[in-house]
């Protein structure tokens, strides 16, 4: 698929009740914070998600790198359809497999690096681990070196770069596969899929919805991207949702 540099993407078309709406979370619905647990969840956005979830007959899902447990905590009292850990977790499936030993070793080593670089964060999600340096960019070389060394001992895992983060996660699971799976099932099947996301990992989601005749919406100005529509920031995404939820 041709993924181009498109500096000025048009806004998404008017909201339609026949959409299946897939939403990334961090950098899309929520502004980044210096650590993943410090994000703010806007109550007006929660209310809008609740309204739109009902209006779409349930076809509104979160598709995130966070675990389902974290998503349910952040979006409480809502319990939206969701794929967590970049598609490794689906609501209704059993828990993801136990992390392999080299991943647990990496977790310990990365925590030592984080102690030496206050502001860096090791996010242990069970079957995946994310090393964040947004809160202390000086930690990047050490975090990167650890992850690159560990990957050699983790067959079946891949290194996923993100925005000030490097994540180790099982190959095969990605947001596109998660979207494709949901589009095979009620209440998503037969609807026009729309994916809204900001990061490299969301390109898989964009490709999946475009392959189903859907709409890909990039948040921010990362390039290149397969998206053909854009919103400038998470604040703009929230306003878009709140406006769409008006009666
Ligand atoms: Mg994101």
Task: Walk me through the topology.
Layout (H helix, E strand, L loop, with lengths): L18 E5 L19 H13 L4 E4 L4 H8 L6 E3 L4 E2 L10 H16 L4 E4 L4 E4 L7 H12 L5 E6 L2 E6 L4 H9 L8 E6 L4 H10 L3 E5 L9 E3 L2 H11 L3
Parallel strand pairs: 1-2, 1-9, 2-3, 9-10, 10-11
Antiparallel strand pairs: 3-4, 5-6, 6-8, 7-8
Helix pairs in contact: 1-7, 3-4, 5-6
This protein binds magnesium ion.
Task: Give structural notes.
Helix 1 crosses helix 7. Strand 2, helix 2 and strand 3 form a beta-alpha-beta unit. The protein has 247 residues and is α/β, with parallel strands linked by helices. It folds into 2 domains: 142 residues, HAD superfamily/HAD-like (Rossmann fold, 3-Layer(aba) Sandwich); 70 residues, Alpha-Beta Plaits (2-Layer Sandwich), CATH 3.30.70.1020. It starts with 18 loop residues before the first strand and ends with a helix. Helices cover 32% and strands 19% of the residues. The strands form 2 sheets. The chain has a 7-stranded mixed beta sheet, sandwiched between helices. Magnesium ion binds next to loops.
Give a list of the ligands. Answer: magnesium ion
**Structural class, from secondary structure content?**
alpha/beta
- CATH-defined architecture of the largest domain: 3-Layer(aba) Sandwich
Main sheet specs: 7 strands, mixed
Low-confidence runs: none
CATH superfamily of the largest domain: HAD superfamily/HAD-like
Number of strands: 11
Give me the side-by-side strand order of the main sheet: 4-3-2-1-9-10-11
Based on CA atoms alone, the radius of gyration comes out at 18 Å
Tally of separate helices: 7
Order of helices and strands: EHEHEEHEEHEEHEHEEH
β-sheet strand percentage = 15-25%
Helix amount: 25-40%
Overall number of domains: 2
């Amino acid at each position: 698929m041709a993924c181009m540099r498109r500096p000025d993407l048009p806004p998404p078309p008017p909201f339609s009740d026949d959409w299946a709406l897939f939403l990334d979370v961090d950098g899309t619905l929520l502004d980044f914070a210096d650590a993943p647990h410090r994000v703010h969840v806007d109550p007006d956005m929660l209310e809008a998600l609740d309204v739109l979830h009902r209006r779409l007959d349930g076809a509104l899902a979160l598709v995130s790198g966070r675990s389902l447990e974290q998503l349910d905590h952040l979006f409480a009292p809502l319990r939206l359809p969701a794929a967590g850990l970049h598609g490794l977790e689906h609501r209704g499936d059993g828990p993801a497999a136990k992390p392999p030993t080299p991943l647990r070793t990496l977790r310990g080593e990365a925590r030592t690096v984080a102690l030496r670089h206050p502001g860096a964060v090791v996010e242990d999600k069970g079957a995946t681990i994310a090393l964040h340096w947004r809160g202390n960019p000086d930690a990047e070389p050490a975090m990167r070196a650890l992850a690159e060394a560990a990957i050699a001992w983790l067959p079946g895992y891949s290194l996923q770069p993100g925005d000030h983060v490097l994540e180790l996660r099982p190959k095969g699971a990605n947001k596109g596969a998660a979207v494709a799976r949901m589009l095979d099932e009620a209440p998503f099947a037969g609807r026009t899929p729309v994916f809204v996301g900001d990061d490299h990992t969301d390109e898989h989601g964009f490709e999946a919805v475009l392959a189903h005749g859907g709409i890909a919406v990039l948040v921010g100005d990362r390039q290149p991207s397969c998206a053909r529509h854009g919103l400038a920031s998470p604040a703009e995404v929230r306003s878009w949702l709140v406006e769409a939820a008006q009666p």
